[in-house]
Design brief:
It holds the Pfam family DUF1801. This is DUF1801 domain-containing protein. By secondary structure, the chain is α+β, with helices and mostly antiparallel strands. It has one domain: Aspartate Aminotransferase, domain 1, CATH 3.90.1150.200. A five-stranded antiparallel β-sheet has the order 1-2-3-4-5. Strand 3 and strand 4 form a beta hairpin. Helix 3 packs antiparallel against helix 4. The model has no long low-confidence stretch (mean pLDDT 94).
């Protein structure tokens, strides 16, 4: 049976072993701008800015998946390679055995907000 939840608190509750890390990630995202809003998208914690999808995250056994979209990944590929993070077209994996890369997350969220601002007509 698939877990369903109505908000990010319910989602985080499903991961007691990494609850603090997920809460820290959420706090880092919100600290970027007071206009960032939460929602559930694709059964994951999701955040929007100016009513546009900003980033998503998901908890896994050995990592946290962070989903900033294709441009968000492409722009930071070199840094992911330096840190030896696994990544794909739309996601990067932050290993649970390492500290969250707070500064990198801030840069990615800022990049995505700038991207949203610049796409406005």
């Amino acid at each position: 049976m698939k877990n369903t939840f109505e908000n990010i608190d319910d989602y985080i509750f499903l991961f007691p072993e990494i609850e603090d890390t997920l809460k820290e990630l959420r706090k880092i995202i919100h600290a970027q701008n007071p206009e960032i809003e939460e929602y559930i998208g694709y059964q994951m914690p999701a955040f929007k800015y100016k009513n546009k999808p900003l980033v998503y995250f998901a908890g896994y056994k050995k990592h946290i998946g962070f989903y900033p979209g294709a441009e968000g990944i492409k722009n930071f590929e070199d840094e992911f390679k330096i840190r030896k993070y696994k990544f794909s077209k739309g996601a990067v994996q932050f290993p649970l055995k390492e500290e969250l890369p707070a500064e990198l997350i801030r840069k990615i969220v800022q990049f995505r907000m700038d991207e949203i601002e610049n796409k406005k007509s």
